[in-house]
Amino acid sequence: MKRVFRSIQFASNIAIILLAVLAGYILIRQYIFETSSTETASNPNPTASSKQASARPRRESSVGKPVPLSGIDWKDNGRTLVLYLSTSCRFCNDSIPFYKKILNETPNTGIKYMAVFLQNEATGTKYLDSYNVKVDKVVSGALDGIGVSGTPTLLLVDENGMVTDAWIGRLDKEKENDVIAKLLN
Known about the structure:
elongated; 2 domains; five-stranded mixed beta sheet
């Protein structure tokens, strides 16, 4: 009987070890390999993910697509920088100083600034007000439809409502300078 019990105990221990290794493999694959492969800045068409953006910025596949926001007259707006944000996104919070910098360094460019929140407009307005970030318009909208897969996402939109450039995630200094340069041109 002791022998049978030891055999069952041994088999159980092996099964637990195998399950732990499998779970570790799945976690590593999902959070390390998948994240790094979908967030390469040099790839203009990365695989979309429904998760919030990681700290590493990437280009989105939304360039060349129209922004599906109802009630927006893009002709009146002209060029617009659209900030897709969420009040619960830590990368959005981390990026607030950059958004303030954009607004301070590009005041006379004729560019309009619009914030699109996953939450309702009142919540989005309150969020921006709490950080003293002033944009021209705050709206509520979804991320899907134009290849936006997470927040924060910045879209530079032309007067026809077409995305001309896009950035996602918390941007490093080089990408921040790229955004400002595009806004100044």
